[in-house]
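ok so I'm stuck.
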Amino acid sequence: MPSLLVRGVDDAIVRALRERAAQHGRSAEAEHRALLADSLLGPRRRSLAEVLATMPPGGEDADFARVDEGGVGRVFD
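replied:
not stuck anymore, here's the structure
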């Protein structure tokens, strides 16, 4: 399995990585691997078009037609 060496990492990031690893009960190296896997191989974000395409139909166009009652109606009765 290949290795990855990351140089020049800020001390605050290393400290946060160690704290997060301790919270998950694993080494900093294992936490680093998990973070890389989650961010690079995790679920892909869907586009708005993809999300909208999965929505069920909301009715017929006539259901949303505006009714003209010959004047300004009260919206909040």
